[in-house]
Amino acid sequence: MHWRDMPQLLSRHFINMWTPYTTEVNLPFKQSPNLLSSQVVWYMILYIPIPIFLLAFFGLLVTWHRRKRQLLIAYAVIALTIAQNLAFWGNMRFRAPIEPLLVLLASGALWWLVCDEPGTFRYRRKQKRVKKIYG
Questions:
Q1: Cα separation of 111 and 91, whole Å?
Q2: Does residue 112 contact residue 63 with C-beta atoms inside 8 Å?
Q3: Which of 24, 38, 108, 116 could form a disulfide linkage to 59, CB 3.0–4.6 angstroms apart?
Q4: pLDDT per residue over 45-54, tens digit each?
Q5: In this predicted model, what pLDDT tens digit does every residue of 85-99 receive, in sequence order?
Q6: Helix 99-114 with 49-66: angle, nearest 10 deg
Q7: What is the pLDDT of residue 32?
Protein backbone atom coordinates (compact mmCIF):
# COMPACT_ATOMS: atom_id res chain seq x y z
CA MET A 1 0.00 0.00 0.00
CA HIS A 2 2.94 2.37 0.64
CA TRP A 3 5.07 1.87 -2.46
CA ARG A 4 6.26 5.47 -2.43
CA ASP A 5 7.90 4.89 0.96
CA MET A 6 9.81 1.78 -0.14
CA PRO A 7 12.93 3.55 -1.53
CA GLN A 8 13.35 5.48 1.72
CA LEU A 9 12.81 2.33 3.81
CA LEU A 10 15.30 0.31 1.77
CA SER A 11 17.88 3.09 1.91
CA ARG A 12 17.52 3.27 5.70
CA HIS A 13 17.88 -0.49 5.94
CA PHE A 14 21.03 -0.27 3.82
CA ILE A 15 22.52 2.50 5.98
CA ASN A 16 21.63 0.66 9.21
CA MET A 17 23.24 -2.49 7.88
CA TRP A 18 26.62 -0.80 7.63
CA THR A 19 26.49 0.93 11.01
CA PRO A 20 29.66 -0.13 12.87
CA TYR A 21 28.05 -0.76 16.26
CA THR A 22 24.78 -1.52 17.97
CA THR A 23 23.27 0.62 20.69
CA GLU A 24 22.33 -2.26 22.98
CA VAL A 25 23.08 -1.65 26.66
CA ASN A 26 23.81 -5.19 27.86
CA LEU A 27 26.95 -5.77 25.82
CA PRO A 28 29.83 -6.98 28.02
CA PHE A 29 32.14 -4.06 27.26
CA LYS A 30 29.40 -1.59 28.20
CA GLN A 31 28.74 -3.19 31.59
CA SER A 32 32.17 -2.22 32.86
CA PRO A 33 33.30 0.72 30.71
CA ASN A 34 36.19 1.72 33.00
CA LEU A 35 38.24 -1.38 32.23
CA LEU A 36 41.03 -0.98 29.72
CA SER A 37 39.89 -4.03 27.76
CA SER A 38 36.36 -2.61 27.47
CA GLN A 39 37.75 0.67 26.18
CA VAL A 40 39.96 -1.10 23.66
CA VAL A 41 37.03 -3.17 22.41
CA TRP A 42 34.84 -0.08 22.18
CA TYR A 43 37.39 1.80 20.06
CA MET A 44 37.94 -1.26 17.88
CA ILE A 45 34.20 -1.55 17.29
CA LEU A 46 34.01 2.13 16.39
CA TYR A 47 37.05 2.52 14.15
CA ILE A 48 37.97 -0.80 12.51
CA PRO A 49 34.80 -1.53 10.49
CA ILE A 50 34.97 1.59 8.31
CA PRO A 51 38.42 0.80 6.80
CA ILE A 52 37.37 -2.83 6.39
CA PHE A 53 34.22 -1.81 4.51
CA LEU A 54 36.14 0.61 2.29
CA LEU A 55 38.89 -1.90 1.58
CA ALA A 56 36.30 -4.61 0.91
CA PHE A 57 34.52 -2.41 -1.62
CA PHE A 58 37.84 -1.58 -3.27
CA GLY A 59 38.76 -5.28 -3.15
CA LEU A 60 35.49 -6.13 -4.87
CA LEU A 61 36.37 -3.72 -7.66
CA VAL A 62 39.92 -4.96 -8.19
CA THR A 63 39.20 -8.69 -7.82
CA TRP A 64 36.13 -8.66 -10.04
CA HIS A 65 38.17 -8.62 -13.24
CA ARG A 66 40.90 -11.14 -12.41
CA ARG A 67 39.35 -13.41 -9.77
CA LYS A 68 35.68 -13.45 -10.69
CA ARG A 69 35.45 -17.22 -11.08
CA GLN A 70 37.24 -18.03 -7.83
CA LEU A 71 35.21 -15.54 -5.80
CA LEU A 72 31.80 -15.93 -7.44
CA ILE A 73 30.35 -17.80 -4.46
CA ALA A 74 31.64 -15.14 -2.06
CA TYR A 75 30.11 -12.40 -4.21
CA ALA A 76 26.79 -14.27 -4.32
CA VAL A 77 26.71 -14.83 -0.54
CA ILE A 78 27.43 -11.15 0.08
CA ALA A 79 24.75 -10.04 -2.39
CA LEU A 80 22.13 -12.42 -0.98
CA THR A 81 22.86 -11.43 2.61
CA ILE A 82 22.59 -7.74 1.73
CA ALA A 83 19.33 -8.38 -0.15
CA GLN A 84 17.85 -10.30 2.78
CA ASN A 85 18.91 -7.64 5.23
CA LEU A 86 17.42 -4.90 3.07
CA ALA A 87 14.14 -6.72 2.63
CA PHE A 88 13.56 -7.95 6.16
CA TRP A 89 15.62 -6.44 8.97
CA GLY A 90 17.98 -3.60 8.24
CA ASN A 91 20.09 -4.38 11.29
CA MET A 92 23.86 -4.54 11.53
CA ARG A 93 23.74 -7.78 13.53
CA PHE A 94 22.65 -9.67 10.43
CA ARG A 95 25.81 -8.53 8.63
CA ALA A 96 27.81 -11.03 10.71
CA PRO A 97 27.70 -13.92 8.18
CA ILE A 98 29.48 -11.85 5.54
CA GLU A 99 32.11 -10.19 7.71
CA PRO A 100 34.74 -12.89 7.04
CA LEU A 101 34.05 -12.44 3.33
CA LEU A 102 34.48 -8.69 3.69
CA VAL A 103 37.88 -9.33 5.27
CA LEU A 104 38.68 -11.61 2.32
CA LEU A 105 37.81 -8.82 -0.11
CA ALA A 106 39.79 -6.32 1.96
CA SER A 107 42.79 -8.63 1.67
CA GLY A 108 42.12 -8.70 -2.08
CA ALA A 109 42.53 -4.93 -2.12
CA LEU A 110 45.78 -5.21 -0.19
CA TRP A 111 46.92 -7.96 -2.58
CA TRP A 112 46.28 -5.64 -5.52
CA LEU A 113 48.29 -2.85 -3.88
CA VAL A 114 51.26 -4.92 -2.67
CA CYS A 115 51.89 -7.85 -5.04
CA ASP A 116 53.84 -7.86 -8.30
CA GLU A 117 51.52 -10.22 -10.20
CA PRO A 118 50.26 -9.19 -13.63
CA GLY A 119 47.24 -6.92 -13.28
CA THR A 120 48.16 -5.46 -9.90
CA PHE A 121 49.08 -1.87 -9.11
CA ARG A 122 52.81 -2.47 -8.56
CA TYR A 123 53.04 -4.56 -11.73
CA ARG A 124 51.49 -1.73 -13.76
CA ARG A 125 53.83 0.84 -12.20
CA LYS A 126 56.81 -1.37 -12.94
CA GLN A 127 55.69 -1.80 -16.56
CA LYS A 128 55.33 1.97 -16.96
CA ARG A 129 58.83 2.52 -15.57
CA VAL A 130 60.31 -0.09 -17.90
CA LYS A 131 58.43 1.40 -20.85
CA LYS A 132 59.63 4.90 -19.90
CA ILE A 133 63.26 3.77 -19.63
CA TYR A 134 63.38 1.65 -22.80
CA GLY A 135 60.94 3.76 -24.78
A1: 30
A2: yes
A3: 108
A4: 889 999 999 9
A5: 888 887 888 888 899
A6: 70
A7: 85
